[in-house]
Amino acid sequence: MGAGGVHPELADREESWPVVRSEDRHRDGWVVALREDWLQRPGHPGDEPFGRLVLEHPGAVVVVAVDDRERVFCLWQYRHPARRRFVELPAGILDVDGEDPLTTARRELVEEAGLEATEWTPIGTSYSSPGISAERHHYFLARGISEVDRGGFVAEHEEADMETGWVPAADLIAAVVDGRITDGHSMIALLMAQARGLLRV
């Protein structure tokens, strides 16, 4: 809170502290890497630089695909780091150079679900964990759903073991609220869609 009890502007803002040096902790041929930056607090040149780990990630998309019965397409997928099978929405990494988020969302819906949509509505964006990464997720709602061929896409590893199905939107929102669904980005996408009046529940 600012002087006199006045709040700063209620919005995130761009800001960048000086980086004295950087060192890779892990980097290979994949799109994600881990480095350590040493920062200098602005206006305090006498302070000792301090280290912060940074997970480099290109970002991702999440799709709330809704059919004409107000059901949402869901995936049940195993996630090894959490040792859980999560109820999720179709999603994917922005791993194609120059591809915008909507194009990625369209591609991922085809690849993961075998679906395409005629109506696309941006829901919003969020930073996954800004204490360690600049990764952003872009959320979309898709309607006008039809089945399509996956275009030669072959699921591997955890994706090859996914279960899929259509779930009434009202049931999904209830499962988010009572804690049965805990994948953060699926929760954000569904609650944002509901808050914007894009889901009829």
Plain-language structure description:
The protein has about 200 residues and is an alpha+beta fold. The chain folds into two domains: about 5-55, no CATH class; about 60-195, Nucleoside Triphosphate Pyrophosphohydrolase. Helices cover about 15% and strands about 40% of the residues. It is built from three helices and ten strands. It has helices spanning about 100-115, 170-175, 185-195; strands at about 20-25, 35-40, 50-55, 60-65, 70-80, 85-90, 90-95, 115-125, 135-145, 165-170. A four-stranded mixed sheet has the order 7-4-9-8, sandwiched between helices. It has a three-stranded antiparallel sheet with strand order 1-2-3, with no helix packed on it. Strand 8 and strand 9 (about 135-145) form a beta hairpin. Helix 2 (about 170-175) crosses helix 3 (about 185-195). It is globular, with a radius of gyration of 20 Å. About 20% of the residues are buried. The model has no long low-confidence stretch (mean pLDDT about 90).
CATH homologous superfamily grouping of the largest domain: Nucleoside Triphosphate Pyrophosphohydrolase
CATH class of the largest domain: Alpha Beta
Anisotropy-based shape: globular
Number of strands: 10
Strand order of the largest sheet: 7-4-9-8
Order of helices and strands: EEEEEEEHEEEHH
Distance between the termini: 38 Å
Short description:
The protein has three helices and ten strands; from the N terminus they run E-E-E-E-E-E-E-H-E-E-E-H-H. It has 201 residues and is α+β, with helices and mostly antiparallel strands. It has two domains: 3-56, no CATH class; 60-195, Alpha-Beta Complex (Nucleoside Triphosphate Pyrophosphohydrolase), CATH 3.90.79.10.
